[in-house]
Amino acid sequence: MISPICWFAAFLVALVAFCYSIHLERHNYQHKLFGFEINSNRRIVAFGILALGAFCLFAPVTWAQCFSSDLGEGWEPGAFNFISWVITNFFTVGWTTTIQTGLTDVTSTVYGAIPLGGGVVGQVFNLLYSLLTLAYIIALPVEIGLFAFNAVATRLSGSVIKRHLKYADHAIIFESVDANTELLARDIVDNIKNGTLNKGNNNGDIALIFCLDNDEDGERQRVLRNLCQGYVRYVFTDTEAADVLATIAALHDTAKHLVAVDIVTTSEETEHNVSATIDMIEATHREPQSDGTPRITLHCTHRNPDDAQIFDAIKTNNEPTCLHLISRVQDEIYDVLEEAPLYSALEPIDISVNPNPRPQNLTVLVVGAGDYGMQAARTTFWMGRMPGVRLNIVVVDPNARAVLEREAARYPEMFGESCDGEPTVRFVEAEAPSITTDRLIAGGAVAALSYDIQNKCVSSKTESVLIPDDARLYAFVTMGDCSQNLSYSLMLQRQIFNRFVDQGTPDYTKRQPVICPHIESEEILEALRSLDKTNGTSGGANNIMHPFGARKTFYTYNNIIDDERERLAIQLNAAYDLCFDGSIESNFDATLAADKAVESYNGKESNKSSSRASAAHIPYRFWALGYSDADVKQESFELNWKEKLQGKVTSVTEQANVASAILSSVVPDTATKDEFDANEQNNRNEFALICRLGDMEHDRWLAYCRATGMTELGHGTVEQEREQRTRAAVVDAFLSGKPNKSGAEGVRKSDILMRHAYLTPDNDVLGARGFLLGKDVYAYDRVIVALSARIAKGSIVKG
Question: Helix 42-68 to helix 79-88 angle, to the nearest 10 degrees?
Fold first, then answer.
């Protein structure tokens, strides 16, 4: 006789297994069971759990049948026969007979074997046990059917993918189907319709692959099918993106035309995007790469700036895939600063004519210290490094103190920077709009918060004027709500105009402000643009408002897959490579093959971010020499740039190779300090203009490092610094897992050490310090300046 506890335990385990198997079927995300991730094998695990539950459910029934009834000829009670009869209950009782007969056979045994009597408790338990038995009798064959259908569908899906890719030149794989996917796919199809994405434009035949899961919107799938039908090859598949990559890698000869594969992960769940991208990178590591394998690029939208370190940790030395990390917040700030550069609020200058231009006060006002607001503050902190420009950043937020304490802990060097005793970044604790912000815009004195880096605390100074009369104002309005941003942006414009009318300063017609409100709503954005044009009374009046943040504008082919900023960063990185391998010394027009340039660029994610930042700052170098956007677009611009940089350079006039002359002037490590000083003085006489632009670029790079959280290790004598660098090299070797080399070369390659060697606030001693520590830190900044026109024209990398 089986005790009631055994019956109850069997029932409970079977019920839990049944519910958990349904849970796994309903959710197609990564799930952990006893520490193991369930993803691609989810259906197998669900069936296994269901089978385990069925075993527990039928085991007491079988035991009762096996030891309390006549089993028939040839069957004797025992362990082997017990297991055989469990299987018999699975198939004979449950499936090969009708549900009614099978249920009757099982429940009759349950009623006769459960020692609960005929009372209410026994009747209820028998009923529940019978109902669960019925559920299993139905669920087991259904699960097997789903498993079989999924296997067949997967095989068919793989065949369909192969058929679509057989003649395609370019495959775009969408890791999931959501609103962002629809926007991007719509833009791709629109480009195909208008002829900008086709064979005539060297884009080839495009195939779109949409990877689905059980939770995805059927209505959106229908919209995408209607969108793609008749214009582009497309396929919907239940196969995960990593498995689709494996299918493509196995094609080789059957997809001879396929040269590029782009996989995009654009969901709002950025942690899912990062996890899926890691799976895809590992999938490409498992598949052997050959010459016929297409170029694979993974485009991953993410949020955490430390994700770059995670990807660097899993990438191999010769990574077969290119990784394009996309931060929507950062890229949208880059985009608006490209549309309306900071210098658009300033007067033009030309340091080739006037090396010391009249000082200008650039005030960047950030209203709202959310993600967009703080990203705007960090970006303008390094992008605002221009000759003769005094940069002031004012952040307005009702929680200013808490925000400043949090941000200063992450970026102490940035928020602790000061010039002539005045902090570069200050906070005002106020709502917008409010009386305090009214007084701030009107040029009145308000209380400001700043970070005291010496005492590591937030200091509050007496009230002072943060937007003086001579300020050139560039404002970001990022308070969160679109309507609120729109309303305050219009109010801010009126307040600035009223200040001109009431006080006569600033001259509104000459010192026109730039206001950039964050507007996600496409309808509000279009209305604002129309309003701005309507209010415009002169040719430049409609340049005041530069709204940004529309989702439709961000999720486009040119912004995600074919990013111009990314190409520019690859060009700049290639210029550095040419410096290192000596090609520029022999030929100013040296180029780097595209595959080598991309391979080098893909090496480290932190270097990519730095290259993007330097590339975004190239137009500021052109502005510093008096060039307008129209000048840069001229065919002769590269030649004009080189001629202006040469100036009075006599030693390189014949060979017309300024970059080569700069590199040839680098002193060897064996030179003395006096020899270095003499050579540096000669360079500043010979290449005066290039040296000034090189200082501008180095100042920008220092600010960029501070805005990304880098800090200095401290300063001392040369001997003390060398000792610090040696200790830091040991730490760097430990963190990287690579053995530490002896001598300057081992120290020179350390990122930690570079922070100390180059994050030097005094530019006059920067070169000497770098030289004494084994590196001429000026040379490469100057070469990049000399090659800026070629980089902008895209002629460094040879296609």
Answer: 120
Residue keyed to tokens 């520490």: 35
Rounded Cα distance, 279 and 165, in Å:
22
Task: Confirm if 136 and 107 have CB atoms less than 8 A apart.
Answer: no
Predicted confidence (pLDDT) per residue in 739-759, tens digit: 554 443 333 333 433 444 444
Q: What's residue 73's pLDDT?
A: 45
Backbone phi and psi for residue 625, each to the nearest 5 degrees, phi listed first: -100, 15
CB 8 within 8 A of CB 114: no
CA distances from 242 to 239, 247, 278 (A): 8, 9, 9
Give the mean model confidence (pLDDT) for residues 418-424: 89
**What's the DSSP call for residue 348?**
-
Positive or negative torsion for Cα 126, 128, 134, 139: negative
Query: What is the amino acid identity at position 590?
Result: A
C-alpha closest to that of 746 among 775, 768, 713, 717: 775
The CB density around residue 611, as the number of other CB atoms within 10 Å, is: 22
Residue 118 CB partners (closer than 8 Å, separation 6+):
none
Range from 3-7, 345-349, 444-448, 731-735 carrying the lowest mean pLDDT: 731-735
* Alpha-carbon dihedral sign for residues 231, 235, 241, 242: negative
Closest CA to 151 of 234, 211, 238, 214: 238
What number of other Cβ atoms are within 10 A of residue 528's Cβ?
A: 21
Lookup: tokens for 405:
């304490």
Sign of CA dihedral 664, 669, 675, 677: positive
- Model pLDDT for residues 15-59, shown as the tens digit of each residue: 888 787 777 665 544 444 444 444 445 667 777 777 777 777 767
Looking at residue 388, its amino acid is G
Higher pLDDT, 692 or 106: 692
DSSP assignments along 485-515, one per residue? HHHHHHHHHHHHHHHHHHH--S-TTTS--EE
Output the six-digit token pair for 546. 């530069």
What percent of the chain stands above pLDDT 90? 28
Residues in the chain: 799
Best CA proximity match to 234, nearest among 222, 250, 219, 218? 222
pLDDT score, position 295: 84
